[in-house]
Amino acid sequence: MATINENFLKLESSYLFSTIAKKVNAYKEANPDKKIIRLGIGDVTQPLAPAVIEAMHKAVDELSTESTFRGYGPEQGYDFLRKAIAENDFIKRGININIDEVFVNDGAKSDTGNIGDIFSTDNIVCLTDPVYPVYMDSNTMAGRKIIYSPCNAENNFVAALPKEHVDIIYLCYPNNPTGTVITRDQLKKWVDYALANQAIILYDAAYEAYIQEENIPHSIYEIEGAKKCAIEFHSYSKTAGFTGVRCGYTIVPKELDTLRSLWLRRQTTKFNGTSYIQQRAAEAIYSEEGKKQVKKTIQYYMENARLMRETFASMGFDVYGGVNAPYIWIKVPEVAQEGVSSSWSFFDKLLTLANVVGTPGVGFGAAGEGYFRFTAFGKREDCIEALERIKAVKDLL
Ligand SMILES: *Cc1c(COP(=O)(O)O)cnc(C)c1O
Questions:
Q1: CB of residue 280 inside a 6 A radius of ligand 1
Q2: N or C, which end of the chain is more exposed by having fewer CB within 10 Å?
Q3: Contact 110, 88 (CB under 8 A)
């Protein structure tokens, strides 16, 4: 008899986004004339850069004739893209990354989830709380023990080092959901911990392109010793609007030679590469034109972030994030009533009074209770209208 992986039964039902959808739908049904604005979406809204579109058209045409047709590509990715990655994202920043250390993928969700294949299920995993759910669910599926390190206003949303021994640490900076960053000094403490404890850091740099301030690390490899203890994930989803196109990459350094060969083996067995068209699209992000165009879209979202941050601050909220990340994380009024979530009660008020949808912080972990997330990925006009509506009802929130 085929038996199932019972670890899947331990997964918490992903009630966050389904509860949001249910509440929004019920409200819409009861109030069909109301226009709802969503500031909770984690997806981008602006179109792809023209340089990317052009590169994709060209790649499609190449596939249409026998002489330039391509079938299966190299599992690790085409050299043209791996070279562009190593040069632009690392070597130009003074980080020595060789193309052998670059693994092109179809997005960071796949690799942050799949990387567990090469680690024993006995490893103890450390996650921040709140957290991007993929790290938690993929390790629950594998049956690993997880310990949580809470992030809150008191520690400036940078988790404290674990008190008990851990083997695998997931860090995501700039952070989703809190929009906060880690400094080089703070990150160095994690690298030193990992080196001293023979732990591995899985560093999710999906929002690296949103960093505006100097002195915030774009890559964990800016920290001395990190190549001996860290694997890093990148994605073009938020960098260049590739949420639908699908492309990203993972760095497994030579210094982690065993892990690198296991990952290569895992990929050549279970993954047949990202399409040629997507990889040409990604390469175009690194062209002069591509860089300018992508930057312009990021500035567009960051202007939304600035408007949101300043508006919420002017209304008296404690506001975090939004400076080097497209997420705003606010502290919401506390509801003293037992069993009532402050995060969800703010959600309800925002929906019914302003017809605006955001994401309750508690949906990302217990430490997110009392907080609320807005994303800057919406259209400017929606963002402005939503803020005006919220301001108009601020005394009732
Ligand atoms: C959006 C996001 C990603 C990117 O996922 P893709 O699969 O590349 O679209 C990775 N990590 C975090 C934390 C994210 O929010």
A1: no
A2: N
A3: no
